[in-house]
Amino acid sequence: MELITQSAKLGGAYDFISKFEQGFDTTLHPIQTARLVNNGGTHPLKEMSDKLEKQLEVSGGEKQRLVASRTFMRLQSNKIKCVTVDEPSSALDPQGEMDLFRRLRDARAGKTMIFVTHRFGHLTKHADLIICMKNGRVAETGTHEELMFKNGDYAKLYDIQASAFLPEKIGYEGPDSISVA
């Protein structure tokens, strides 16, 4: 249980899990993969399904924190050498995003971590390698500093996002099919 608790704290899920009536024993809303047809009788699976349907649902940000917690749980294994995460912070608030990426950076020793994201945030300046994609192809690669110096697609995308926070910047209207991996 200690490993689960520690992983929940690292993933940012501990606080809201602790507020559940059953804590870590709470059953979240399951994914329904089959439908039971009731022909008037009772069936043990139908009774179990009825109980499960009344379980808790969580927000998008809470789901991301649970996924992050599972990731931290797996990172405890020396067998994990590569972690790939798609949009790990898309539903997190800025503080949650910063905290998550700091903890992931702290846990990465000896592991390759690949993050697919459209948000530049706290991750870009810490990445060993950024691969900027355009129309499904690699447009350019490098560190944040190298890509900003090149002033290519990555720099344009970065400036678009930064312009929302810098009053002296005017938004860039360029290709809308560029993403960063």
Automatic annotation (TrEMBL):
SUPFAM superfamilies: P-loop containing nucleoside triphosphate hydrolases. This is ABC transporter domain-containing protein. It comes from Piloderma croceum (strain F 1598). GO terms for molecular function: ABC-type oligopeptide transporter activity. It comes from the Eukaryota.
